[in-house]
UniProtKB/TrEMBL annotation:
Signal peptide: none
Segments crossing the lipid bilayer: none
Residues of the HD/PDEase domain: 22-138
Protein name: HD domain-containing protein
Organism: Sphingobacterium arenae
Lineage summary: Bacteria, Pseudomonadati, Bacteroidota, Sphingobacteriia, Sphingobacteriales
Pfam families assigned: HD
PANTHER family per the UniProt record, alphabetical: HD_PDEASE DOMAIN-CONTAINING PROTEIN, SUPERFAMILY HYDROLASE, PUTATIVE (AFU_ORTHOLOGUE AFUA_1G03035)-RELATED
């Protein structure tokens, strides 16, 4: 099978698998991350096949929706790639990246690094900021039936981790807890450039939001 064939097959597999996925993690998210990955690859030296396959497979089974099992995603990805004849080094690499991009890894317990991981991580993070990031955040908040904003509930920094885990925080808090921090976490120059633009858009959204909240403008 050629590289193009395996990428095409993987795209079809993921599209089918995510048919009923929650809209923040559906096929369209995957397609955007895949596009971002290809854009970043234009200016980076890396194994493009590993990057593209990982972009396609990175949310195949989010642990959030599988009782916190961080191994199920890498396992499904690995089985699929083995069935489709990918070499074992690349399979292991794809699995490592998916595992290390997971929730646990986002808490800082990362023990694997590669250029390919940096690229796909950037591509995924870019989809969490800007106009699409805003749409995804409010979609996710709606899915969880969260408040849009509550001036009496401060962002996470001011609450203990344990309390926060059980609190229902409004979606606006997510900007301060994650979205506004992502610009400075980008690995590649291309993603840094794009993130700068999207970050500014979120800042202007927030300004407008508070203005309207206060009955101005
Ligand atoms: P991904 O799997 O794409 O890396 P996540 O699973 O962390 O991202 O989140 C998916 C989407 O839902 C992102 O756009 C993220 O910002 C949003 N999201 C996650 N947690 C929250 C939250 N507590 N409030 C609002 N949006 C959230
Ligand atoms: Ni993702």
């Amino acid at each position: 099978m050629t590289k193009l064939d395996i990428i095409q097959r993987t795209a079809e597999f993921v599209q089918e698998k995510l048919k009923n996925a929650e809209a923040g993690h559906d096929w369209w998210h995957i397609q955007r991350v895949w596009k971002n990955t290809k854009l970043i690859l234009e200016t980076e030296e890396a194994d493009a096949l590993v990057c593209e396959l990982t972009a396609l497979l990175h949310d195949i089974a989010d642990s959030k929706f599988h009782d916190g099992d961080e191994h199920i995603g890498p396992r499904i990805a690995g089985e699929f790639l083995l069935d489709n004849g990918l070499d074992s080094d690349r399979i292991a690499h794809v699995q490592q990246i998916i595992y290390n991009m997971s929730y646990k890894a986002s808490l800082g317990q990362v023990d694997f690094h590669s250029k390919e991981l940096e690229i796909v991580q950037d591509a995924d993070r870019l989809d969490a900021i800007g106009a699409i990031g805003i749409a995804r955040a409010f979609h996710y908040g709606g899915f969880k039936n969260r408040e849009i904003y509550n001036p009496d509930i401060p962002p996470q920094q001011q609450l203990s981790k344990e309390v926060y885990k059980n609190a229902t925080t409004p979606t606006m808090n997510h900007f301060y807890e994650k979205l506004l921090l992502l610009r400075d976490k980008m690995n590649t120059n291309k993603a840094k450039q794009i993130a700068e633009h999207r970050h500014r858009f979120m800042e202007s959204f927030l300004q407008q939001f508070y203005g309207e909240w206060n009955g101005e403008m």
